[in-house]
Design brief:
The chain is 35% helix and 20% strand. It is built from 19 helices and 22 strands. The strands form 5 sheets. An 8-stranded mixed beta sheet has the order 5-4-3-6-2-1-7-8. The protein has a 5-stranded mixed beta sheet with strand order 9-10-13-11-12, sandwiched between helices. Strand 3 and strand 4 form a beta hairpin.
C-alpha cells in the first residue's frame, strides 16, 4: 500500500491560509495599510476600482524595502516584526505573522514598486498567483506602491461569493474608518473609481472623528481620560441625548490597534443605564493603553480579538472613568456644591427663623368616651357571647394606627356606623381589585413558565372554534396541545397583515410625494457610499434624494403610500438592510412598506373582539410561515405548560 500523506505545495497552502486572512477586499486594505503604518509612513493613499475587485492600490511614504526584502516579504511566515516567540508579548507593530502578503499574492496579481530611504533606485516585483514573474530595478518614489489586481481571479468560488459593489464598498469604508481613527498622526486619502471619498489630514482624535463622521459630532462628544498603573483610558463618549437606534459609532482601540470586546462594550452600556432608551446605544471612541505583556493579540487571524490579563480591573477603571465624565459634564447624577451656579442654601438664623408651633391639648384622653358595642356598629343581628365579649373589646381598643379610634365627644353613634360601613366597603373593593390583579403579578420570578420551544407552531396550536376568549381586551387565550396559549392580538394581526402586504408588494406602483420640509441626513462615509449607489433605484420607488456634499443628503420626496412613515427612519432602515444582506433596494423597500402598513392597520391592545373575529385571526396567523414572531423579531405568543399549571396549584 502506497503512502497517502503528502506535503501541500506552497501555492496551495497559501490559498488555504488566504481563506482565513483575506475574506474580502476590505481585508486586503487592512493588511496593506497596517504594513504601511509599521513602515513608518506619514501619508497613505488608497486607490480602488470596482470596490476592490479590479484594483486595490496602496501608496505610502514609509521606509521602503530593498530588492531582497521585497522578494522575501511574499514568502510565508517571513516578517521583520518578530524574531522569537517571546516577541509576541512585546509587540509594538500591527503585523507579526508574515502571512498577509503571501496570502494576497496567492489569490491575486501583485505589482510592487518600492525604494529604500536614501537610495536612488528601487525595485519592481510582479507576482501572479504566488508565481514570481519578474523582478527588476525601477525608478520610483521612496516608500512602497503595491497594486493588487483581480482579487480571487484563480479562486472562482470565492470571487462568486463577493457581494455587490455597494456592499463591498461599505465594508471597505468601515475598515478605512477604523484604520484612520487609530492612526490620527497619518494623512489618509481614499479614491474610488477616480472619485476622492476622503482626504484626511493628521490631527487630534476629535478632529479625525469629525472629519470621518460629520462636524455635528463636535458638540455631541465629551472626553474621558484616566491614567492608572494597569491601563490608561482616553477618548470620547457620546451624550445620552445623541444615542442612536441604528449604526451607533462604537470603536475600541488598544495600543494603537482596533479590537472588538463585548465585555468592555457591556461596561460602557452599564454606565448609560437609565440615561438612554433601551433600544438605543451611545457613540464612543475609546483608546486603551496597557503593557503589551498583559495582552495576547495572537488568538484570531484578523487580530481583532484580544485577551487581557487584567480584564476585571480594566472593567472597573473603564466604568469609573465613563461615570466620572458623565457626572462632570452634568449628564449623570452628581452633586457639586462648589459650582458657581449652584443654588444658594440659606443658613439657619435663630433670631429670625423660628420652629413651627403645634397646638396640643394635654388634657385630651382618647379613652374617656365609652366605646360603641359591636351590635351598635354592625347591626342588631350581630351578637357576641359573654365568653368572647372581653376579647372583642380588647381587639377593638383604639390604637394610634386605628383611624377610627378618636371620636369627638359630640360624634353620634350613627356616624360611627357609617364609618365602619365605609371601611368594610373599602376593604371588599380592595380585595376584589387585588384578586383581579393577581393574574398580573402572581407569577413568581424563579418559577415563571418559560415559553416552550416551538419547532412547528402550527402543530402546537390545538384551537377549536369557540374555545378562545379574550383577556383584558389585549390577549387571546386558547387551549393548545401542550397547555394554555396566550397570544398578543396586536402582534398576531401585525404578522397577518405584513404577510398579506408583502405578498402584494410587487403589484404596488410607487409615486413620489414631495415633503413639505425636506429631511436632512448626515451619514457616515460607508452609509453615504451605499446610498449613492442605490439612489437611482430608489428614485424608481418614489424617493427623491438630493446630495448636499460632505456625506449630507436631503430627502425631498417619499412614496405616497408611506407618507405616514418617518422618511429618515425609512431610508436608514433600507441602507442597513442593503448593507447587511446585499438585497436590491426594491426588496428592502417592499419590506419597509409592508411593515409600515401593517403597523398602521393592526388592531390595538384594548380593542374588544368577537368570537368570530378571534377565530378568524387565529386561523390566519397559523397559516403564516412564521407565526411565532413579528417581522421585527418579537414573540407573538407564549405557552403556559400543563405541568406548570399543575405545580402552580399544588
Amino acid at each position: 500500500m502506497s503512502d497517502i500523506i503528502r506535503l501541500l505545495p506552497d501555492s496551495v497552502a497559501n490559498q488555504i491560509a488566504a481563506g482565513e486572512v483575506i475574506q474580502r477586499p476590505a481585508s486586503v486594505i487592512k493588511e496593506l495599510v497596517e504594513n504601511s503604518i509599521d513602515a513608518g509612513a506619514s501619508a497613505v493613499t488608497i486607490i480602488l476600482k470596482d470596490a476592490g475587485r479590479t484594483l486595490i492600490q496602496v501608496i505610502d511614504n514609509g521606509s521602503g524595502m530593498s530588492d531582497t526584502d521585497a522578494r522575501l516579504a511574499f514568502e510565508r511566515h517571513a516578517t521583520s516584526k518578530i524574531a522569537k516567540a517571546d516577541d509576541l508579548f512585546t509587540l509594538h507593530t500591527m503585523g507579526f505573522r508574515g502571512e498577509a502578503l503571501a496570502s494576497i499574492a496567492a489569490i491575486a496579481q501583485v505589482d510592487l514598486r518600492t525604494m529604500l530611504k536614501g537610495e536612488t533606485i528601487g525595485t519592481r516585483l510582479v507576482i501572479n498567483g504566488s508565481k514570481v514573474e519578474s523582478q527588476e530595478p525601477d525608478a520610483c518614489a521612496q516608500g512602497s506602491n503595491l497594486m493588487v489586481k483581480n482579487l480571487f481571479f484563480n479562486v472562482p468560488a470565492r470571487r462568486k461569493f463577493l457581494k455587490k459593489d455597494s456592499v463591498e464598498m461599505s465594508a471597505i469604508m468601515r475598515e478605512f474608518e477604523r484604520l484612520a481613527l487609530v492612526n490620527t498622526g497619518v494623512d489618509f486619502t481614499l479614491i474610488s473609481n477616480d472619485t476622492t471619498l476622503h482626504s484626511l489630514m493628521r490631527g487630534s482624535m476629535k478632529r479625525r472623528v469629525c472629519d470621518l463622521f460629520g462636524k455635528n459630532l463636535d458638540k455631541q462628544l465629551i472626553p474621558i481620560e484616566t491614567d492608572t498603573s494597569i491601563v490608561s483610558v482616553s477618548g470620547f463618549i457620546g451624550l445620552p441625548e445623541n444615542a442612536r437606534k441604528r449604526n451607533p459609532l462604537q470603536f475600541f482601540m488598544v495600543n494603537g490597534r482596533n479590537m472588538r470586546h463585548p465585555y468592555f462594550h457591556k461596561a460602557v452600556m452599564t454606565c448609560y443605564e437609565h440615561l438612554i432608551p433601551a433600544d438605543s446605544q451611545p457613540n464612543y471612541f475609546i483608546n486603551l493603553r496597557v503593557d503589551p505583556e498583559t495582552i495576547d493579540v495572537n488568538i484570531h487571524p484578523t487580530k481583532n480579538e484580544i485577551k487581557f490579563e487584567n480584564e476585571q480591573a480594566i472593567w472597573e477603571i473603564l466604568t469609573a472613568a465613563i461615570r466620572d465624565s458623565l457626572g462632570r459634564f452634568n449628564v449623570g447624577p452628581a452633586l457639586d456644591f462648589d459650582r458657581e451656579d449652584a443654588p444658594e442654601i440659606p443658613v439657619f438664623n435663630p433670631t429670625t427663623d423660628k420652629m413651627p408651633e403645634i397646638d396640643i391639648d394635654p388634657a385630651y384622653n382618647p379613652f374617656s368616651e365609652p366605646l360603641p358595642s359591636p351590635s351598635d356598629i354592625l347591626g342588631p343581628e350581630f351578637s357576641v357571647s359573654g365568653r368572647h365579649q372581653g376579647r372583642f373589646e380588647s381587639a377593638s381598643r383604639p390604637t394610634p394606627a386605628n383611624p377610627y379610634s378618636r371620636m369627638s365627644s359630640t360624634g353620634s353613634r350613627q356616624s360611627a356606623v357609617t364609618d365602619w360601613a365605609k371601611l368594610y366597603d373599602d376593604f371588599m373593593r380592595k380585595r376584589d381589585e387585588g384578586l383581579a390583579s393577581a393574574g398580573d403579578t402572581a407569577a413568581p420570578s424563579d418559577d415563571s413558565p418559560a415559553p416552550l420551544p416551538i419547532s412547528d407552531p402550527a402543530q402546537v396550536h390545538d384551537h377549536a372554534a369557540g374555545n378562545a376568549f379574550q383577556y383584558k381586551d389585549s390577549y387571546i387565550l386558547t387551549p393548545s396541545r401542550d397547555g394554555l396559549m396566550v397570544i398578543d392580538q396586536h402582534r398576531a394581526h401585525l404578522r397577518v397583515l405584513y404577510d398579506s402586504y408583502l405578498a402584494k408588494a410587487d403589484e404596488q406602483e410607487f409615486v413620489a410625494q414631495a415633503t413639505m420640509f425636506p429631511d436632512v441626513l448626515e451619514l457616515s462615509g460607508a452609509q453615504s457610499t451605499v446610498l449613492a449607489d442605490i439612489r437611482e433605484r430608489m428614485a424608481e420607488l418614489g424617493f427623491v434624494i438630493t446630495p448636499r456634499g460632505d456625506n449630507t443628503w436631503s430627502i425631498d420626496g417619499i412614496p405616497s403610500q408611506m407618507a405616514d412613515t418617518p422618511a429618515r427612519d425609512m431610508v436608514l432602515a433600507m441602507i442597513d438592510n442593503i448593507t447587511s444582506t446585499g438585497l436590491d433596494p426594491a426588496s428592502a423597500m417592499y419590506e419597509q412598506f409592508a411593515l409600515s402598513m401593517a403597523r398602521a392597520g393592526a388592531i390595538r391592545r384594548g380593542q374588544p373582539l368577537s368570537a368570530d373575529e378571534m377565530d378568524r385571526l387565529l386561523s390566519e396567523l397559523f397559516r403564516s410561515t412564521s407565526p411565532a414572531l413579528t417581522p421585527d423579531g418579537k414573540s407573538i405568543f407564549a405557552i403556559i405548560s400543563t405541568d406548570y399549571i399543575t405545580r402552580l396549584l399544588g
